[in-house]
Amino acid sequence: MATLKNLRPGEKGIVTQIETKGALKRRLIDMGITPGVEIMVRKVAPLGDPIEINLRGYELTIRNTEAHSIHIIKNDKK
Amino acid sequence: MAHKMALAGNPNCGKTTLFNVLTGSNQYVGNWPGVTVQKKVGKTKVGHSEIVDLPGIYSLSPYTMEEIVTRDYIIDENPEVIINIIDGTNLERNLYLTVQLMELGRPMVIAVNMMDDVEQKGWKLDCNKLAVELGIPVVPITARRGYNVDQVLKKAEKLAHGKEYCIPKIVYDTKTQNALNDILFIISEKHYDKAIPLQFFAGKLLEGDEQAAKKLDLSKNQMARIEEIIVAYEGTAEYGDRETMLADARYKYIEQVAKKSLNKGKDANKLTVSDKIDKIVTNRFLAIPIFLLMMLGMFLLTFGPIGTVLSDWVDYLFQGLLAPGVKLLLDNASAPDWAYGLFLDAIIGGVSGILVFLPQITILFLCLSLLEDSGYMARAAFIMDRLLRKLGLSGKSFIPMLMGFGCTTPAVMAARALDNEKDRKLTMMLTPFMSCGARLPIYALFAELFFEKNQGLIVFTMYILGIVVAIITGVVLKNTLFKGNVAPFVMELPQYRLPLLKSILLHVWEKVKGFIIKAGTIIFAMSILVWVFQNFNTSFQMVTDADQSMLGQFGAWIAPIFIPLGFGTWQASVALLTGLIAKESVVSTITVLFAGGSQAALSSALAGAFTPLSAFAFMAFSLLYMPCISAFVTIRKEMGSMKWALGTAVMQTGIAYFVGLLIYQIGSLFIH
């Protein structure tokens, strides 16, 4: 299963599932990471973690561990 | 008639700007740019309604302290109108909170902010259509330019008078709507009274918010029926879970609304100026050098020639103009000797000893405000997260830490922005190690006297020492007291914005005002008190030798504690003690005690009492020991526990003693 972690900067994916629990999950979905939303990975921080993503027209940063729990389908179309 | 209105919105949507425009700058209550830590109240310029500025939040789900403050206020305090401010350039996410607020069914007006940015992007945002789709009055504004903000107030007042209506039109998908209706039906059996927003609570129950369930106090039977509805609802989705499904339903509705009212045109993916800046500032290779350069620039500006020259001017104002003037007055009035001591040494000496640092503190606050208002602070958190995590902190701790260089009190409050309790506590414990503005005078005084050639370097060393001690303490605490899971890190990177001069000046003025008031009250009073205690003995007789004074005797009693650190004089001990009231007092106390307030006599008096090594140890101790009373009280309030606050203070003082001891003892081995 591909996760957000598998995307390189500039690549896009569509969220299928969020595999975390509790407060973190609520925060992620509140911020707009819901099934069906398209996310683009914009950047990896200079020290390799966290990453910057773009969704719903704004920029969000999450850590690699969180990115790893967000399942996606790769979206190769431009 | 005056009305009660609540201002709610996402962080970074310009809420505080709107608040300031609506209420006028004088309503500004202790707040740091970007961090509205508590609700603030202001009266509007026209109409005299009362506006409450609530902390910026993303959602009404209980997650951070800010969200709980806002939610409780809106639900329990019944504001007559909610002014919901949203960022027009970030419509979808901002509308999420809007939808939750709509569920509350309260009169609401939406102010779509940043309309200038929307236009600049070439987008077409039809606010009339947005209003029709949502069923809520919408006013397009640009808060920073004051454009159309009066309309917001007019609409809000109309709503409060019942001359305009707000009939929220939320349209979820059928299965969600049905589940909500079924729950609504069950809870309305018990709560038919309209004061409780049932629609909102139906949503909360469907989501699984335990606090909401408790608040409604439902029977076992009712709970069971609701549980059935939820199980059936979850069964309809592939990735069945109620929280995601409801959020998804909200966002689906939002997408529809956004699609109908916002046209991004063809160039939707064009790089904005903000994107271009970000390409450089958070670049893989450039980010860290740029970050370090910015920090260096900030310190050079504050402690370099500009700050020093301005400080000299202030010094001249007091010692060169005011003091001779007062002396002349006293001469003419043929005042007694003690009056000279009290006015010249205690009052002018003590207060000016502090105010000379006003320019440097102003510059430091100016830099911090600029970093915050421009959006760079969030990038700094992004760049530094990995590093800070090694200390058991998160990138978000970076903001309070950096603010700690200004003043510990607001910095500790800024820790509220952290989501996780452990992170928050640890951040609050380490923030006081960041050398606050009030400690700077101590270094400046000693560095000038004892390290004339390397003044800058010595002051810089102090700042670094604070950081290093914080790092070591962080690592130790992370592996002992705060062992366990790492907290998550989910943070918005707001668009870069050109900081508004007016709002920057407002923030800086707030802080500077606080500093001046402190100098005029606490420091003023402390200077007099110290002078009195230093000049009188226990039977209230004036003494010629300060050693015989009350302060001298008390100081002599505690001084031995500091002998191993090299500064076991009673004056130094008393100065550290007054530093607990405010760190600024250390310098004014030293000025009064060692030299009777005269700047000229100060250097020779201090040269007799300190060696460069013991001066260095004294600076280090001043840096690290427990923060001033105001910061301590804040830590106690934020931690919600006296035990934790005291523990923190004891830990800090212990570390200060230990570091001072190390410096003096090891240093003594090399310097004879």
State the gist of this model:
The complex is a heterodimer of chains A (78) and B (672). By secondary structure, chain A is of the alpha+beta class.
Secondary structure layout plus pairing:
The complex is a heterodimer of chains A (78) and B (672).
Chain A: E1 12-18, H1 22-30, E2 38-44, E3 51-55, E4 58-62, H2 64-68, E5 70-75
Antiparallel strand pairs in A: 1-2, 1-5, 2-3, 3-4
Chain B: E1 4-9, H1 15-23, E2 40-43, E3 50-53, H2 65-76, E4 81-87, H3 91-103, E5 108-113, H4 115-120, E6 124-125, H5 127-134, E7 138-140, H6 149-161, H7 174-190, H8 198-207, H9 210-216, H10 220-235, H11 242-261, E8 262-263, H12 273-281, H13 287-303, H14 305-332, H15 337-355, H16 358-374, H17 376-389, H18 398-403, H19 408-414, H20 421-430, H21 440-450, H22 455-479, E9 490-492, H23 501-535, H24 550-558, H25 570-578, H26 584-595, H27 599-609, H28 612-624, H29 629-639, H30 642-670
Parallel strand pairs in B: 1-3, 1-4, 4-5, 5-7
Antiparallel strand pairs in B: 2-3, 6-8
Q: What does this protein structure show overall?
A:
The complex is a heterodimer of chains A (78) and B (672). Chain A is an alpha+beta fold and 78 residues long. Chain A contains 2 helices and 5 strands. The longest helix of chain A has 9 residues, at 22-30. Chain A is globular. In chain B, helix 5 (127-134) packs antiparallel against helix 11, helix 14 (305-332) packs antiparallel against helix 15 (337-355) and helix 19 (408-414) runs parallel beside helix 29. Chain B is mainly alpha-helical. Chain B has helices at 15-23, 65-76, 91-103, 115-120, 127-134, 149-161, 174-190, 198-207, 210-216, 220-235, 242-261, 273-281, 287-303, 305-332, 337-355, 358-374, 376-389, 398-403, 408-414, 421-430, 440-450, 455-479, 501-535, 550-558, 570-578, 584-595, 599-609, 612-624, 629-639, 642-670, and strands at residues 4-9, 40-43, 50-53, 81-87, 108-113, 124-125, 138-140, 262-263, 490-492. Chain B is elongated, with a radius of gyration of 29 Å. Chain B starts with a strand and ends with a helix. Classes of the chains: A alpha+beta (78), B mainly alpha (672). The interface between A and B is large, with 36 and 38 residues. Strand 4 of chain A pairs antiparallel with strand 9 of chain B, so a sheet runs across the interface.
